[in-house]
Each structure stands twice: as structure tokens, then as C-alpha cells.
Amino acid sequence: MSQSQQFRDNRDGSDSTSPPDPHQQETHHSHSPSPSAATTQSEMIQAFRDLARGEQQAAAIEANLASIESKLDALLASVEAGAGAAKADGIEDDSKKEQLP
Fold it and tell me: Where in the chain are the domains?
């Protein structure tokens, strides 16, 4: 092997005389998660936060819709009560007045 090849091999961190130590690689991976695993974990954490925020927003929207529904029911009931009272008093509907000659 020439000196330039040895220099390139040493610079790259490989040594032609000794094979890589598998125990050294295993302990390195067992102590700290790989970057992709850490990224996946942080993405999962962010997804759970987003999910919780979405559930809170959905609950708030549901409460607002329930409030609007009750107001609409009350408004409809008052309109129906007013129409029923007008008929009981003998006041005709505008549609009936148009039909009379």
C-alpha cells in the first residue's frame, strides 16, 4: 500500500490492519438514539400537542354551536307563539289577504 493510500485511509477513519469493533458501534447506538429516532420522537410529541389543541378547539366550537342552537330554538318558539297568538286574535296572514277579492 502506498503512503497516499494509507493517508487517505487514516483520514477517513478506517485502518486496513484492524476491522471495525462491533462492540464499540453497539455501545454508541445504545446510549443515544439515532438522529432519525430523535426526530421521530419529537414529531410524535408535536403531533400529540397538535391533537390536544385540536380537541380543545373542537370542544369550544361545540359549545358555541350548542349556544347558537338554543338561541335559534328560542327565537323559533317566539315566532311560532306570535303567529299562533295572531291567529287566535283573528288577524289574518298576509298570504290570506292577497287571496281575498
Answer: 38-87
